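# step 3/5: fold
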Amino acid sequence: MDPVIVVLVALLLAAVAYKPLITLLNKSSGSAADKKPPSAVPVKAAYYVDAEAPQPTPLYITPEQVKTYDDRPWRPFRWPYHQTMSIFKLDINHWLDMDKYYWHYIQEKERIYHEYGKDNIDWLPESEDACIELMETVRDHMLKRYPLLFTSEDNGVHVKNELTGEVLDFSMPLKDHPLIYVTKMAKEDFYIVQKRADGHHYLVAAAVPFPGGSFGISYKIGKSLDFIHSEVPYYESKLKKSMERWFSKTTAADPVERASWYCTWDHNLLCSNVYALKKGETVDSSVDERKFNIRVERQTVRRLPKTKAIIFTNHPVYYSIEEMKDEPLIPSLLKKIFYEAPEDIIKYKNFTAMRDHLLPYLDGLIQRQIDLGLITEDTPLKTLPSYPFAHFVEQSDEIKGWNTAMLKRQDEAARKKEEEAKKAQAA
């Protein structure tokens, strides 16, 4: 799966049907002090005039707390599954999120960079100013958003990453390329897109250790977005004309986010198993159905205020189908999408590689939800009201993260199942 393709497609679709900040996102985006009413976001004005980029508010979590910290629980499943993507106004506090897997992502970034080099991290000379601005933006964001995780005693010249223990030296001239600094601070992948004199946008730099599929920086760096989108379903027929118009209007005050997803049976960040299959090949019948995951690609887009470069971030998060089994309608939605989504999407996401293998498992989970009273056979199958998040997203604690509500729900479901079993035995 090519994350930059997915996120750009989403933006193109948003050009046709842009949605402002939804109430759900306001409710799920942190403390009351962080929240602003939709009226405080001048969406129309910001489309045509540059404005100062939004700034994050501090979140005082410690490295010890990060060890058990979960990010917002994404569930980007919708039905009907038609070719429109939900783009939400990004709360800048969630531009670069934190979770308990931070250490793993940072270590994997270093390993992949040393092993594969320019296949995953590369840049063109024309991107120098944008790369420096991105580096400074990421540094400043981390210092402001996570003041106990990133510290500095000299106003950002030297920054200590309290999670890894590394001290980063930002004094000029830099000891390494700006994108290397970025990969040492944030767990997200980054793409930098700039407009050239011909009026079109090009990928000029990228740090993408976790593409998940076949995407390689080496053969797309310096290419236009038209070239990058050449294999995307519906691009030529529905999306191409809207691309440059959307990018010409967005400003630093217009950050957005969304999420895409696909299914696989691993946790590989560089290349997921489903995209390692040869054409027409399916998952081996011996693979345990409980090993299957939904890989959510959490994506953001923002424009840098000085260089005007457009920054895409992508961050993969894995959710096992097993851990979502007691979330109402999730198994039903997955089954429906695997078999009845538009054929081009089924092919693009390679659902055919595993859907027949998963069918008995999903049917069993659906029956389990009926037995537990979570759904009925007549429950309408449609996008969840909490989309694009899990239903428990509002029951969150920004300091403790979003895992406590999920675990509580799972414990309650397990207890209910035990009680039903005991009643059945007694009868």
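# step 4/5: annotate
The chain has a mean pLDDT of 83.
# step 5/5: archive (pending)
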